[in-house]
């Protein structure tokens, strides 16, 4: 956050659950963390394409996307991405 970095959040099930636009500052980062902790899961279904298409449509500059999903191991293996 010291380099003017901006952080956003998009939580997806079979619909968009939470979306916080990228912004900077400690208060916004705290808001992102609160949303991660406090947002209940409303659906056990997952439509990852919904979230990825939203990111593609709203992305304006280069960014790092962190993807957390219970099926990520299968997806990364399929794409040939090395897991860390």
Structural account:
It is a single chain. With 84 residues, this protein is α+β, with helices and mostly antiparallel strands. It has one domain. The chain has 3 helices and 2 strands; from the N terminus they run E-E-H-H-H. The chain has a two-stranded antiparallel sheet with strand order 1-2. A hairpin with a 3-residue loop joins strand 1 and strand 2.
Label this structure with key terms.
84 residues; alpha+beta
Provide a concise account of the structure shown:
Helix content is 38%, strand content 17%. The protein has 3 helices and 2 strands; from the N terminus they run ββααα.
* Biggest pleated-sheet summary: 2 strands, antiparallel
Count of separate structural domains: 1
Give the distance, in angstroms, between the N- and C-terminal Cα atoms: 24 Å
Helix tally?
3
Mean pLDDT comes to 78
How is this fold's topology laid out?
Blueprint: E1 7-12, E2 16-23, H1 26-38, H2 48-58, H3 72-79
Antiparallel strand pairs: 1-2
């Amino acid at each position: 956050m010291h380099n003017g970095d901006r952080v956003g959040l998009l939580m997806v099930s079979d619909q968009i659950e939470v979306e916080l636009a990228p912004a900077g500052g400690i208060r916004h980062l705290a808001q992102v963390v609160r949303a991660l902790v406090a947002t209940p899961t409303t659906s056990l279904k997952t439509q990852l394409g919904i979230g990825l298409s939203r990111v593609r449509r709203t992305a304006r500059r280069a960014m790092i996307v962190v993807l957390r999903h219970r099926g990520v191991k299968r997806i990364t293996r399929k794409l040939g991405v090395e897991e860390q």
